[in-house]
Design goal:
The complex is a heterodimer of chains A (233) and B (374). With 233 residues, chain A is of the alpha/beta class. Chain A has eight helices and twelve strands. Chain B starts with a helix and ends with a helix. The chains are: A alpha/beta (233), B alpha+beta (374).
């Protein structure tokens, strides 16, 4: 017999709705225990699986520390929580919903800035003029550090933002941002533009598993069923 | 420590808790990921010092009325670095660093040769026998750029990218006209400026464009700065490319690798038809070699490389590193140092102050000595 697996599902929002719809479509409807606000659940067809509802960001952390075996979360949150090239967690399947790009955006009024190389150059001038580093507001410090290092940009500082990152440049708490965008309309409304080479990640919802669970039959079965239906929204 | 204090260096104990800003604003984000940064109850951002050079500079600035006054300090105390790959004996997150910092020395080459000689004497006194000395000189590279015909802004960009080999070569190819400049989302605006030539009112154009799109200036930059960069980009379109021979000279310099004596000969071959900054820098190189030899350093066992120094962003001139093999045979830095003439003014000195220093990673030194006796 096989050990029970814990599957973490997003606890609220569009990601939850889409994930539940996706599982229901392949005949694996998730049943919530207790009332609608219960945080435990199960899947009738999969007695070996326990479902737990967590916030999407907690799911990435829980996969990382091994407290859940499987999880549905945003690839952006997963890549932020897990270092690149780490074999500890693997994306089993990209789910085709929850699309969002993680991008580097700067004020539209910076008419002379189009690329990461431009950002690097103005970071130097900014330091010389203001005696402090250019600030980048973000909820994604790890993704930002990796991308900026790959592009050879070093003269900046990260300001971790709790919410409304896109308002930071206008508020003066940072000069540029790294944030997610789906249509770009929030960025435009805040008079920000994405750099030409500023797309760090094209993210979508993923089913991810700790690498030691990849061989579990439930993982293979989930993958097979969802792929067969070819979820696209 | 005894080796340093005996040479007339005053022993100091700089603060372990340091304001985070001074490290982060100087080095940028790459150092933050290796530094223990935290917020104190009043909300101020502090860090555990990741090295002792900056704390020693702050000590100097707070204890000397005139920072240009010559001062020689030595220290031995804990430093803290987060190890992303996990801490181990050779990469501890807390370690003792011993070192010297020499501010305001009037004879640059002499101070450099003496600091290196002291560092070598200190690691030998600790019992280290098998080690290699690597040398570099960021001042030579700067002098080479000064000696080649190109706009000052190209020198600034090349010297900025020195630390990033991939970007450096892409830039060099672009300046030499080997690689074509790719179009970006702002190329149209640059076209407009380039077509207008010198007659263009760039600031006016920027302000007109901002007004037309209803954009307020945010992000700490004004329309003059934005216009100035656009003008530079427009100028780059019509600038004569960097001469192939000069691009080749840069590559030749970066390819240099050999003993300081052989390097001196190679520099003589590179320098004669170059301008006076390079001739002067090469003269200093010869003089430093002579002083290092006089200090008893075995010059033929050291290796100079044109690219060496790429990992150590605040240095401005002569750099050195003493390495020993770790248990797997990989080179491990035991000690390192060099010249950093801009650091004191970067962190608040009203005057530039010449500075040379070194730091020894004492845990690694002890491990390397133990490995030899086994």
């Amino acid at each position: 017999m096989t050990a029970k697996l814990t599957l973490a599902m997003p606890s609220k929002g569009r990601l939850l709705e889409a994930a539940e719809a996706c599982f229901a479509q392949v005949g694996l409807a998730v049943i919530r225990d207790g009332f609608e606000r219960g945080y435990q659940g199960r899947i009738a067809a999969l007695p070996d699986v326990e479902v737990t509802f967590l916030s999407a960001i907690e799911i990435a952390q829980a996969l990382k520390d091994g407290s859940v075996a499987l999880g549905v979360t945003g690839e952006d949150l997963l890549r932020e929580a897990v270092p690149d090239g780490s074999a500890a967690i693997e994306v089993v399947l990209r789910l085709g919903f929850g699309h969002a790009d993680v991008v580097v955006a700067v004020p539209q009024c910076w008419l002379d800035v189009a690329t990461m190389a431009d950002l690097d150059e103005i970071a130097v001038a900014f330091h010389a003029r203001h005696g402090r580093r250019l600030k980048i507001a973000t909820k994604y410090p790890a993704l930002t550090r990796r991308w900026f290092a790959e592009k050879g940009v070093t003269g900046y500082r990260i300001v971790e933002s709790a919410g409304a990152t896109e308002g930071a440049p206008a508020a003066g708490t940072a000069e540029a941002i790294v944030d997610i965008t789906t249509t770009g309309s929030t960025l435009r409304a805040n008079r920000l533009k994405v750099l030409d080479d500023g797309v760090i990640l094209r993210s979508e919802a993923v089913l991810a598993a700790g690498s030691e669970h990849l061989g579990h039959p439930v993982v293979a079965m989930l993958k097979e069923r969802i792929e067969a239906v070819g979820i696209r929204q | 420590m005894a080796a340093f204090a005996g040479q007339g260096f005053e022993t100091i104990v700089p603060d372990i808790l340091q304001p985070a800003d001074i490290f982060l604003d100087r080095s940028g984000e790459n150092i933050r990921s290796r530094t223990y940064v935290f917020t104190d109850p009043s909300g101020a951002e502090l860090c555990l010092r990741p090295d002792l050079t900056v704390p020693t500079c702050r000590f100097h600035l707070s204890h000397q009325a005139d920072p240009r006054r010559e001062a020689r300090y030595c220290y031995c105390g804990p430093a803290f670095r987060f190890q992303p790959g996990g801490a181990d004996r050779l990469h501890p997150s807390e370690f003792d660093q011993a070192g010297v910092e020499w501010f305001g020395a009037s004879d640059a080459e002499l101070a450099e040769a003496e600091v290196l000689a002291m560092t070598v004497a200190a690691v030998e006194a600790a019992g280290l026998r098998r080690y290699t000395v690597r040398l570099g000189d960021l001042g030579l590279f700067e002098a080479l750029l000064q000696s080649l015909a190109m706009p000052e802004r190209w020198r600034r960009r090349l010297s900025h990218q020195f630390w990033r080999p991939k970007q450096f070569h892409a830039l060099l190819d672009q300046l030499a006209g080997v690689a074509t400049r790719s179009r970006t989302s702002i190329s149209g605006l640059i076209d407009t400026l380039a077509q207008a030539g010198g007659a263009a009112d760039a600031v006016g154009l920027v302000e007109q464009q901002l007004a037309a799109e209803g954009l307020a200036l945010v992000g700490g930059r004004n329309s003059r700065e934005i216009a100035a960069r656009l003008v530079e980009k427009a100028l780059d379109r019509s600038e004569r490319p960097l001469a192939q021979a000069d691009a080749q000279r840069i590559e030749t310099y970066l390819g240099l690798s050999g003993s300081p004596t052989d390097t001196a000969k190679a520099l003589d071959r590179l320098a004669p038809d170059l301008g006076s900054p390079m001739v002067e820098a090469v003269r200093r190189f010869h003089r430093r070699n002579a002083l290092m030899g006089a200090a008893g350093l075995p010059l033929d066992e050291a290796t100079f490389a044109g690219v060496f120094g790429r990992q150590l962003e605040y240095y401005t001139g002569f750099v050195f590193q003493i390495e020993a093999a770790d248990p797997n045979g990989r080179a491990l830095a035991i000690a390192g140092g060099g010249r950093y003439d801009r650091l004191l003014s970067d962190i608040g000195s009203p005057y530039p102050v010449p500075a040379v220093g070194c730091a020894i990673h004492t845990e690694r030194l002890a491990a390397a000595c133990r490995a030899m006796t086994r």
